[in-house]
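Researcher: Go.
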Amino acid sequence: MIFVDQVRLKVKSGRGGDGCVSFRREKYVPNGGPDGGDGGRGGDVIFIVDPNLNTLYPFRHARVFKAGSGQMGMGSNCHGKDADDLIIKVPKGTIIKEANTGKVIKDLSASDEVYKLLNGGKGGKGNQHYATPTMQIPKYAQPGQENKEIEIILELKSIADVGLVGYPNVGKSTLLSVVSNAKPKIANYHFTTLNPNLGVVDINGDGFVIADIPGLIEGASEGIGLGHEFLKHVERTKVLLHVVDVASTEGRDPIEDIRKMQYELEQFNPELLKKPQIIAANKIDALFENEALDRLKETFEKEGIKVFPISAVARKGLNELLYHLDGILKAMPQEHLIYEQEFFIKNIEDPKEPIIVSKEADGVFTVEGSRVERMLGYTNLEDEKGFIFFQNFLETEGILKELESLGIEEGDTVKIYYLQFDYYK
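Model: Structure:
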């Protein structure tokens, strides 16, 4: 499976169902009262952390997610059916960002987290709610509330206590496989690991999470290779464990490799080098003399970076390394990095279908749009309250202002579908 750790999506909640205009139909009762039911609620958009996921691959091709709309109300006071909520499952460590600004909406960093991103629209009230002593046969009902929509970016930042960093083919995947329950693919060629592998290290019934962070090569901080795609997974780790080939089986200098890794980490985020660093000098089983190991210790231990000689294949020196890591982690605060909310859903404007106001060649002004058409469907213009409602709609929707900008004058004709009237202020 291809590893995907960032996707751009459009999500929409469901629209509320319209209220119903209906009257009782009973034998021998010629003028039954209103019995229009309310519309159903539109579906919410809810994100759930799924512990079985570790990639955003399921979103690779599906880019629009929409909850269902509520059912329209019915006669006999029947409530329209509420729509089902849209459930979107994501891996632990997924961050939801507003796409245009890149601001954080929610950091889904808890194992059992459930987060409602968008509320569905409320159902409209049926005409039974509008009956009064003076208006006993209301011929209008409330439309359902519009849905909300937002374009978002999902970004996965793996959550691990220890991050393994180092050049390809130095034995990171092998080390992870022998010290944890992870089962990474291992082969003797470069760029074997294409996604961060996480495993749990068990120490006397306790333990910590360790991750193999691939893709770090020279120029990674500038986006070369898989750099940017994987460097961000280091940000949540508490300890950096440099893995180097101390035997230089491929002719690489382990000291130079670590310096290059430190440079790339610093260029990406200077805060990363403030984390505790440890060096695992791997492949000591292939080391014929200790000069390289001594040089490694002499260079870095005076900087406070402890060096542990190990052989992941022969399983040598691993206990000392793991107990040292465990001790460091136990002395550190237990919470991990959580990205604070920067964007709030209340800032989203409700999407509105456009209302088109135009002046025809014969001088007649026309107003069109599905919202206008729905308004006419549930408004009784022969009733005083209905007519006032109609006037308020024209004003609040900016239709009157738009007509004036087109040069309308008193006495001019305005046509809204089947309705035609003369304009007066």
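Model: Residues 1-157+337-350 form a domain with the Spo0b-associated Gtp-binding Protein; Chain: A, fold (CATH 2.70.210.12).
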